[in-house]
Amino acid sequence: MSELENLMDKLLEQKSDLTKKDIEEQIRLKKEKIGAGYLTDQGALFLIASDYGVTLSEPLKVEVGLKDLYAGAKEISLETRVLNLSPAKQFSRKDGSPFYLRTMTVYDTNSTASVKLWDEKANLPGIENLKPGDLIKIIKAYVKSDFDGSPTINIGSGSNIETTETESEIPTIDTITKDVSELQEGQKDLVISGINDGMISGMEFTNSRGQPGKALRMRLKGKDGNAMRVVLWGKDESSIPNMISQSAKVRLLGVKIKSGNQGLEIHGNDATIIEIEGGKEAEPIIVRILSISPTENEKTMILGVDDKNNTYNISDLLNSTSICVEGDVIECMPSKVYGNSITLDENSFVRKLDNDESIPSLSQLRTKINDVKVDESYCIEAIILKVPERREVQTKSGESIALSEIFVEDDTGQIWVKGWRNQARLIDKCELGEIVSITGLNAKAGLEGRIELFLTAFSKIIKKN
């Protein structure tokens, strides 16, 4: 009799209302929920027994693999590699006493697992020096079920972590790295690589509990040329270099793949490790100003273009471009350059230059509607064919967001132009029959595969007639 059958018989002895077929079906469902790549039949059986309040006392082998883990296992030891490591955080118990917690993701040949380091173990000597791919030994840990039902390794007072230099069959980080083009919905604990596709920006928000939060947003392009949206929750601009080119190589360690409003998205958290080609010092940039738009919070949003037709989104935080008008050529020393996103602040300087004919003007940059392609940025000139329409769209979180849209055409085709939130106000000011020049548009795939143009914070609508 196999070990699995032996354990199944023990469960059937204590739960006589179950059949072997019932248990086999529950094993299938448990693996389907958590992921077959993360759980064996035996591990699923231990979770099922726990659901019924039954303890299976069969001990694990002294040395186990991640795939063999189950909730309730004690004093396990295993060899694994580090995927990523979060900062240590302080929390309070119900009685008010503080405790520390640090999380780590580890992997072996065929699986991954979350590790929680409690109290003094969260600040083990040398723990901060662990790097992705380091081979470690986890000693005398215990396993509990996480909120999603997956087994989680816990490092408490009687447990330990040691680095080891032995030979191992566990693959290296480079070996398990996947290109953006290979990703599928539902994958987790991934190491992915891609090329920066334009803007990288920070975001601040208030979560459902009323607490402030932050996130880092970017887009990564795979080898197939398609781009995917990235949101790294709990990260900010301090995690990345000050100077990042528009085509910099990026690797993210410890992310998962989810389905979003615009297709698949890459999501990470504060434990995600970001590796981006870049430097600490920004370099001067010379651009022609295509449009200038002041904001309600006294920032100035500028769309610029250089002599290689690269467009830039420039955030002027201190109004240092107040002497400039649309069409001027300027040289600026930014404090930060993230792809095509530039920040000007107290550490920056700006000066006007003589006109440079090698830098294109707005009229030279305009694109015909028929030439618009998904995931690119555009400036167009067109006539409005329909009265602007506004509606309120309900998000998954219950938030109501304004969306306005107009239908426009030029001599090559027709297209919808849409604006969310503050950008919706720009569209609301338009009228039927007007000829407009619109800058800073992003092209995205809409319903039935048709392409639609969306206003950005750097967009401007100029009426021509």
Account of the 3D structure:
The chain is mainly beta. It folds into four domains: 3-163, OB fold (Dihydrolipoamide Acetyltransferase, E2P); 180-276, OB fold (Dihydrolipoamide Acetyltransferase, E2P), CATH 2.40.50.140; 285-353, Nucleic acid-binding proteins (OB fold (Dihydrolipoamide Acetyltransferase, E2P)), CATH 2.40.50.140; 366-463, OB fold (Dihydrolipoamide Acetyltransferase, E2P) (Beta Barrel), CATH 2.40.50. It contains six helices and 30 strands. It starts with a helix and ends with a strand. The model has no long low-confidence stretch (mean pLDDT 86).
Produce the secondary structure layout.
Blueprint: H1 3-14, H2 20-34, H3 41-51, E1 76-85, E2 89-92, E3 98-107, E4 112-118, E5 135-145, E6 151-155, E7 160-163, H4 173-176, E8 177-179, E9 190-196, E10 201-206, E11 212-221, E12 227-233, E13 243-244, E14 249-260, E15 263-268, E16 273-276, E17 285-294, E18 300-305, E19 311-316, E20 329-333, E21 336-338, E22 341-344, E23 349-353, H5 362-365, E24 377-384, E25 389-394, E26 400-409, E27 414-420, H6 422-428, E28 435-445, E29 451-454, E30 460-463
Parallel strand pairs: 4-6, 8-9, 12-15, 13-21, 19-22, 27-29
Antiparallel strand pairs: 1-3, 1-5, 2-3, 3-4, 5-6, 5-7, 9-11, 9-14, 10-11, 11-12, 14-15, 14-16, 17-18, 17-20, 18-19, 20-23, 21-22, 24-26, 24-28, 25-26, 26-27, 28-29, 28-30
Helix pairs in contact: 1-3, 2-3
